[in-house]
Design a protein that fits this description.
Two copies of one chain form a homodimer. The first copy, chain A, is an all-alpha fold. The radius of gyration of chain A is 20 Å and the shape is globular. Chain A starts with a helix and ends with a helix. At the A-B interface, helix 1, helix 6, helix 7, helix 9 and helix 10 of A face helix 1, helix 6, helix 7, helix 9 and helix 10 of B. Chain A binds a DNA duplex through helix 1 and helix 3.
Chain lengths: 204, 204
DNA sequence: GAATATTTTAAACGGTTGTTTAAAATATTC
DNA sequence: GAATATTTTAAACAACCGTTTAAAATATTC
């Protein structure tokens, strides 16, 4: 009985995740989810108490997916140049795997900022990373340009994420296919890595 | 009669623009718009034929607002470094003036990519700008790094736009107020300008 | 295998959606 | 200023929304 119920619950959860990612909270109906999961409508409220509750559960998961890897990478015992490269690569991988993730998160937070109350400990986690220590030491010794962590982190993510966020727009504006976009994004990623390192790491 | 009817029509259009920007197409009801415009519900369908028609009219306007200035700046007879600075500054000004614009556009295109069929001539316009010519010449003569226009343009916009796009998130993550965000964004903007120039313009 | 607990179902709930109607109010024409 | 055209109104429309119900189907317990 446990395995059966978990099966249905998970089926709904996964279906809801797909639909929410594509259409957002407002654009998704309970019937959309039930249809995607191929289950009765009443089951969405039987397992989760409401559409909002189901959404928040998924939203929390996706927020963690969004932030999970970056902290880990920032704490790796590797030099700062390699670290920047890894963060960008990780970001790129995530965007290719789930292109809808960032626009979904940004949009839902934009419409309902209170949803962010979930994540609060992130700043102290970021402050205490090895990356931040390396940054402070590098700036102190003059090998790094004095750029605050609060600026460096968005720089490492925004260029890649924005590209995928506006994927459809970039394709239309530049008149390229989905395949051509892939190649373009790959190339763009390399420029982003080089550009950030070039700026942060001072040559003697 | 003309001036009266235009008054009501514009009142609805402006109200709809405000509500759509804040809540998106799905999150906005006809009654929301009527209430914001302080008019009867039936008038939204009397002047515009449907919610969709009203939306598309506003969406087209906002798309033009989004792209209007950049082409003009790219054609200015100024050196490429100043040009990059102006594009970033223009972007920054736009984001401060209408912080909801980019997330709105990106989200609506993401949900309904066909809405983009409006704008098609943009690529040829971009290709024939003075900026693109300056870029080609600079690369040819070796004073500029060989970066395609398709990569340079997103770099000039993504860093600033993404910051405002995730304004609420960045505030929460870094634990800063709206005022502190303003100061931070101003500083971040300078880093972006310097970083792009530093990468594109090769020192001898 | 009868009794009990859990899961699934079809149908309905009241409320809201975008849109339409037909009459009232107002403005314009001659 | 009567006749006509335009604008605004309150009310209603069917369709859909999230959610609930109560019975049917299935699984579990003893």
């Amino acid at each position: 009985m446990k395995c059966v119920s978990e099966k249905s619950e998970d089926k709904i959860r996964e279906a809801a995740k797909r639909v929410f990612l594509k259409k957002g909270f407002d654009g998704t109906t309970s019937r959309d989810i039930a249809k995607e999961a191929d289950m009765n409508i009443a089951l969405t409220n039987y397992y989760f108490r409401s559409k909002e509750k189901l959404f928040m559960e998924i939203f929390k998961d996706l927020m963690e997916m969004y932030f999970q890897n970056i902290i880990h990478i920032l704490n790796k015992p590797i030099d700062i140049k390699t670290k920047i490269s890894e963060v960008v690569e990780n970001n790129y991988r995530m965007m290719r795997q789930e292109p809808d993730l960032v626009i979904f998160i940004m949009n839902e937070i934009h419409k309902e900022p209170e949803r962010l109350l979930v994540k609060l400990s992130l700043y102290s986690q970021l402050k205490s990373t090895l990356f931040n220590q390396q940054l402070a030491e590098g700036i102190e010794s003059g090998v790094l340009r004095p750029v605050p962590m609060e600026s460096i982190l968005p720089l490492m993510t925004s260029c890649i994420e924005f590209l995928f966020l506006g994927k459809e727009m970039h394709q239309k504006v530049f008149g390229i296919s989905a395949e051509e976009f892939e190649a373009f994004a790959e190339n763009h990623k390399e420029h982003v890595k080089a550009m950030i390192c070039n700026y942060l790491i001072l040559e003697k």
